[in-house]
Write a structure and sequence with these properties.
The protein is of the alpha+beta class. The protein contains five helices and 17 strands.
Length: 347
């Protein structure tokens, strides 16, 4: 039935908001370059066709027709091949844009790593995408573990690991990386093993577990675990390992349980700081974890947790991402700010 446009009223009103329009155009470009790219869709079509093909002969015997199976599948491939360019044309005309431009990322000029575009991690370089002119694109240099960002080519780009571009013509961008020092903290030195938020389930209390993976152990003094939504935020709290000698060299294989809220909220038992059995237990409130410098830490059922090592200054922005875990996709390594540190996986 004719709705008089009411079925699209919400979207039309949202598109009147400049911020939403920018996000809509950016997301459209991202999907056309990735999930809806011809090679991605055609691969899905081929997989489905291969699964169905053994039954086609039986179907034809049961329901004879003039339809050609192979020709119909090829029509789907042709549609997938041509559709992205048509959608881009509709978007350019519908939103009065200046057109599209190709953005190319070459393999690193030095070191090892890749890039992420609007949070989407590019697995292999070189890579090309088509973007709407004038729509900002966030580009993140993502180092391989053991490397760090050292710059971009061309050199007139901002020399920071996260930059924003608004392309107006075809452009090629190349990241550069360099080796980190051997003793520098890096992603994977410590990982999240498990966590539990007390949400009225049969398991009481809130806690999480870390495990040291780095050969030779780690110095955890000054490291922090946070459930903030970005690296620099201070609204949801952090737990910071204190300046205690027992944290100076925690051996590889040690599991550290951090109890945020004990079962029954009873009196806190003493912390277990011995590492001879590769087990440590720390209770928030016993003083070995600083919960006051960034107050408000609380482990919720849909929270993210991020482990960071201290950087060259006391600023949270300088911290080095080590590990990331999340129960939802609301916060990602990219949105938090540790993708540029090489933290690519969600545990």
């Amino acid at each position: 039935p004719d709705t008089g446009g009411r079925d699209a009223l919400l979207l039309r009103k949202l598109l009147e908001n400049p911020a939403f329009l920018e996000q809509f155009l950016s997301r459209t470009a991202d999907l056309l370059n990735t999930t809806l790219a011809p090679q991605s869709v055609i691969a899905h079509i081929d997989a489905l066709a291969a699964e169905l093909e053994p039954d086609i002969a039986y179907e034809t015997l049961r329901w004879p027709s003039s339809v050609n199976w192979e020709s119909s599948v090829q029509e789907l491939r042709d549609f997938a091949h041509h559709r992205p360019d048509l959608v881009r044309q509709y978007v350019v005309e519908g939103f009065d844009l200046n057109g599209t431009a190709q953005l190319t990322f070459d393999p690193p000029a030095s070191g090892s790593g890749t890039v992420a575009v609007n949070g989407f991690l590019i697995q292999n370089l070189p890579w090309q995408g088509v973007y709407f002119q004038g729509v900002p694109i966030q580009i993140t240099a993502v180092p391989t573990v053991g490397y760090r960002f050292s710059g971009w080519d061309p050199p007139d780009l901002p020399q920071t690991p996260i930059i924003t571009l608004a392309v107006s013509a075809a452009q090629t961008v190349t990241p550069r990386f360099e080796l980190m020092s051997e003793d520098a903290p890096r992603p994977g030195d410590v990982i999240f093993v498990d966590y539990h938020a007390d949400a009225g389930s049969h398991i009481e209390g809130s806690w999480f577990e870390l495990r040291v993976m780095r050969p030779g152990g780690v110095d955890l003094r000054g490291w922090r675990v946070t459930d903030n939504d970005t690296k620099t935020a201070t609204d949801e709290g952090s737990l910071i390992f204190g300046d205690n000698p027992v944290f100076a060299c925690v051996p590889r294989g040690t599991t550290i349980m951090v109890v945020v809220n004990p079962a029954g909220n009873g009196q806190l038992p003493p912390d277990d700081l011995n590492t001879w059995d590769r087990q440590m237990v720390l209770h928030v409130g016993n003083g070995n974890l600083d919960a006051t410098a960034d107050a408000g830490f609380n482990l919720g059922p849909n929270d993210n947790l991020v482990l960071l090592a201290p950087g060259p200054t006391e600023a949270f922005s300088d911290d080095q991402g080590i590990a990331f875990v999340a129960a939802s996709t609301a916060v990602t390594p990219a949105s938090f700010g540790v993708l540029a540190d090489g933290v690519t996986s969600i545990q």
